[in-house]
Specification:
One of its GO terms (cellular component) is spliceosomal complex. By secondary structure, the chain is mainly alpha-helical. The chain contains eight helices and two strands; from the N terminus they run ββαααααααα. A two-stranded antiparallel sheet has the order 1-2. Helix 6 crosses helix 7. The protein is globular. The two termini are 30 Å apart.
Length: 172
């Protein structure tokens, strides 16, 4: 993990924010859109309108509360709850791209992923997620957070060392 201290110190012009506490600082850069977390618009709309996000997750104010919620509530990491998205006759992601769509019930995992984003995680907190030993879903959401928020040039540095992890995490 020694080389991960340097993650994020080279940012292309498209980055939204830069780390402010130096080369080895705890502040993470943010890549892309600072409001949407670079999520698909249909997914984000469903997260923001979800009673689970607006009511239950609103009450959670700390990193540790959110990690506990992931541990107890996440059972898969797909964006939609099973059987809630009507896709008959649709091909690809046409509904989501055009915004006309076939939304369903957004998953607990994606609500919690966006909740983590609202907390503006530190490098230390993100490392805590991806090295967590209690749940593969906590680690999975940490890696998804990296994928959606970190500069693309830094992804391999974050993921290197974890690519051979053999723990099973059910995708759906």
């Amino acid at each position: 993990f020694a080389n991960m201290a340097n993650v994020g110190n080279q940012l292309p012009a498209q980055a939204v924010s830069k780390p402010t506490s130096g080369k080895h600082g705890n502040v993470l850069p943010l890549w892309g859109n600072e409001k949407t977390m670079n999520l698909n618009p249909m997914i984000l709309t469903n997260v923001l309108s979800s009673p689970y996000f607006k009511v239950q997750l609103y009450e959670l104010k700390t990193y540790h509360e959110v990690v506990d919620e992931i541990y107890f509530k996440v059972t898969h990491i797909e964006p939609w709850e099973k059987g809630s998205r009507k896709t008959a006759g649709q091909t690809g992601m046409c509904g989501g791209v055009r915004g006309v769509g076939t939304g369903g019930i957004v998953s607990t995992a994606f609500c919690l992923l966006y909740k983590l984003f609202t907390l503006k995680l530190t490098r230390k907190q993100l490392m805590g997620l991806i090295t967590h030993t209690d749940s593969p879903y906590i680690r999975a959401l940490g890696f998804m957070y990296i994928r959606y928020t970190q500069p693309p040039t830094d992804l391999f540095e974050w993921y290197d060392g974890f690519l051979d992890d053999e723990e099973v995490c059910h995708l759906g």
